[in-house]
Amino acid sequence: MKGPVHLNALRAFEASARHQSFSSAAAELNVTPAAVGQLVRSLEEWLGTPLFHRGTSGRSRLIPTETAERALPDIRAGFDRLSLGLDRLREGSRNGVLTVTVSPSFAGKWLMPRIERFHEMWPETDVRLDTNLKLVDFSAQGIDIGVRYGRGSWPGLVAEKLMDEQVYVVCSPAWLAKNGKLRTPTDLAGKALIHDLSVDTRLGFASWSDWLKRAGVENVDARRGMRINNSAAVLQAVVDGHGVALARSVLARDDLTAGRLVQLFPKVKWTSELAYYIVYRGECASLPKLVAFREWLFQEAASASAP
């Protein structure tokens, strides 16, 4: 039995054992049931031993023999290793898929409005976005690179600062026209505050209580108002005129530039303790498609930060 035929026969055997059916195995392998049966029989002839129990009256499922059952775990592990090896070969090229993990808000407010420029520069690389607020296991979930918001330390990952962030108060032009000019932070008394719950304040994320304290305001109740666990949704609620919010500069920049948002009290300065970091596994640092995307992120961040 030659190498490729041998491999095809092993695949047919493994799929048949897993499905306990030649027909189901054939559907998975995109061949006919007869072809699967023939491959399995050729493997049995080469081995000189049956791999499935046959001839039992009324049996509708393929039942592997004891010898086959013992061999299946190693065969499956071998196919897993082959798939991993093929992935490693693909990693050496800019062709194929680059899997990027970011938060939903960062994807919607910063990355997606810019991603077409990456596609124009590297048309051979397809980007797959994994949008998740929770931390993900890069190795287990096949993540190549990501952008995370925090203090810059994540076990097992290289972290390079991409952008710092300022925090400031925003509202919509229509809301401002309706509520009158707010000259000082004390004018926020009685106004609808919108709270961003997407990042834990224990990590250093600015809350309304923190901001009001820094601004020296005591007459505003920071406990009241709408609470939203998505920064992009917070900004949309402000654009729609539901109140005022503490905006994250990286996410709010495009809305401010377009006039959908107005910054209030610019004299109150706050640079967040948290920042955006590019993160990836150290052993993948030299992969061409990762290098290309990393360099592009730095270029876009520099452009976005320019006056």
From TrEMBL:
Keyword Transcription regulation listed: yes
Pfam family, one: LysR_substrate
Alphabetized UniProt keyword annotations: DNA-binding, Transcription, Transcription regulation
Keyword match Methyltransferase: no
Residue spans crossing the bilayer: none
MF-aspect GO terms: DNA-binding transcription factor activity; sequence-specific DNA binding
Domain HTH lysR-type: 1-65
One Gene Ontology term from the biological process aspect of the record: DNA-templated transcription
InterPro entries for the chain: LysR-type_TF_proteobact-type, LysR_HTH_N, LysR_subst-bd, WH-like_DNA-bd_sf, WH_DNA-bd_sf
Recorded family membership: Belongs to the LysR transcriptional regulatory family.
Listed name of the protein: Glycine cleavage system transcriptional activator
Gene source species: Paraburkholderia ribeironis
Source species taxonomy: Bacteria, Pseudomonadati, Pseudomonadota, Betaproteobacteria, Burkholderiales
